[in-house]
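Give me structure tokens for this 171-residue protein.
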Amino acid sequence: MNCLNVEIKAKCANPDFIRATLKKHKAEFKGTDVQTDTYFNVKTGRLKLRQGNIENALIYYVRKNKKGAKDSRVRIFRTENGCELRDVLAPALGVSVEVKKWREIYFIGNVKFHIDKVPGLGNFVEIEAIDETGRIGRRKLLEQCSRYLGLFKISTNDLVSDSYSDMLRNV
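Here you go.
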């Protein structure tokens, strides 16, 4: 799958407020995923293998680190056996960093929400407006992200520019 995402990540001091807001807006709760993201050394973009009890995929993406809404060009290869894939990729490319997290996953239409707890970093909320078909367009994705920023009462001071992998490298 190849798609455009517009994403926002923010520190989350009150996950219960985010949960309540999502429930009020009839978000579909997919479950809590215990994930390990293994990042591999690549020349451009980021390549990670996600292993979880809900989501399992090899994900390549290109995204700039900046606060607020940021575009990501994403390619996803769904996999069932991440251990075997990791055993191939780790010696070939080298592992850059591993990110372990507990992730609650919700959806409202094409917008995916994560409430994350990352050991050593804290709690976060992510908003991902996803265009898998190319029919929604960047402008609409930005509008969706802005709407949820307002509903969640996320201040600009809480916005995060870096990925969890970058944050963990800098701890």
